[in-house]
Amino acid sequence: MSIEAALDLLACPRCGSGLAVAPSGGGRALRCTREHSFDIARQGYVNLLEGPEPGNADTAAMLAARTRVHASGLFEPVADQIATHLVGRPRVLEVGSGTAYYLVRSLGDDDAGVGIALDVSKAAARLAARLDPRVSAVVADVWRTLPIADHCLDAVLCVFAPRNLAEFARVLRADGRLVVVTPKPEHLAGLRDRHGLLEVPAGKADQLAVAAAEFFEPLARTGLVRTREVDAALASDVIAMGPNAFHRVPQDVAGGNLVVAVDTQVFRPLPV
Ligand SMILES: C[S@@+](CC[C@H](N)C(=O)[O-])C[C@H]1O[C@@H](n2cnc3c(N)ncnc32)[C@H](O)[C@@H]1O
Ligand SMILES: [Zn+2]
Fold first, then answer.
1. How many CB atoms lie under 10 A from the CB of residue 88?
2. For ligand 1, is residue 142 a contact (CB within 6 Å)?
3. Domains along the chain with CATH numbers
């Protein structure tokens, strides 16, 4: 979509001032009051990363596999749970958004909703830019100052993605919500045992709760565990969409029972 819908929420990654759309060469760019300029790609996303894409950015092949997995409904209970926490919160940032599946689900049927899909992967931004007219896609690194204005968002969403808690607190309104989903150790059990996938370390949700206490007050924590039978094609896509794909996707993936097991935590910023 047009990046225009999110203009009030975006900030120059170099100086933090506001951005406006300006002509640039044959195309368009976002330009700040100090003349820093960032081209809007022909596919509709804007690259505010100012540097090379890191090695852990999702690839187009991983994103294609992730899209098929989401289309299968495997993660629908997770999306439903997230969406319940974001009702009536129209300005939402999803960090490490990948296919922006959870972001779009969270905007629901609110025509006035504005979603920003932020990912360090250009392939992800390309995909998110054409997903839903309410979504603006931005390439940026969650570990740097986010290219977002102070205290302007109703919600930040972070699902299986890196967390910069100080920055999440800076961009959220005083009554905003941070929703974070982390995998439990048994997440993707079945597949993990059959194919020796990377382990999920225990205690992720507890570690998040401890780290978040510096900036946030906890409001809710819900666990979700679902087992579903998946066929070989879906099982293969689940491997191909995740970090194991950076190493290798096994050839002989079999179907079987698959566990989806996550913790969802909701926080609100501490008063400043
Ligand atoms: C495991 S995927 C999760 C994607 C999506 N949230 C989902 O659950 O479908 C992690 C995502 O974080 C992105 N990512 C990794 N490092 C990042 C960083 N430093 N800044 C922004 N995004 C990052 C990857 O490109 C990838 O799309
Ligand atoms: Zn600037």
1. 8
2. yes
3. 3-269 (3.40.50.150)
- Pocket lining: 176 vs ligand 1, CB cutoff 6 Å: no
Specify the pLDDT at position 17.
Answer: 97
**Contact between 149 and 10 (Cβ < 8 Å):** yes
Which of 68, 97, 238 is the pocket-test mutation for ligand 1 (most atoms within 8 Å of CB)?
97
Q: What is the pLDDT of residues 188-233, one digit of tens each?
A: 988 888 887 888 889 999 999 999 999 999 999 999 999 999 999 9
Model pLDDT, residue 246: 79
Q: Is 47 near ligand 1, meaning CB less than 6 Å away?
A: no
DSSP, collapsed to helix, strand or coil, labels residue 222 as strand
* Residue nearest atom 10 in ligand 1 by C-alpha distance: 161
**Ranges in the chain, pLDDT < 70:** 1
Quick one: which of 254, 239, 260, 259 has its CA closest to 197?
A: 239
Contact 135, 108 (CB under 8 A): no
- Give the pair of three-digit tokens for residue 108: 């629901």
pTM, 2 dp: 0.96
Spatial separation of the C-alpha atoms in residues 23 and 1, rounded to whole Å: 17
pLDDT of residue 14: 96
Alpha helices (runs of H) in 32-91, residue ranges in sequence order: 60-71, 76-85
Q: Is 121 in the pocket of ligand 1 (CB under 6 A)?
A: yes
Q: Residue 247: what pLDDT?
A: 75
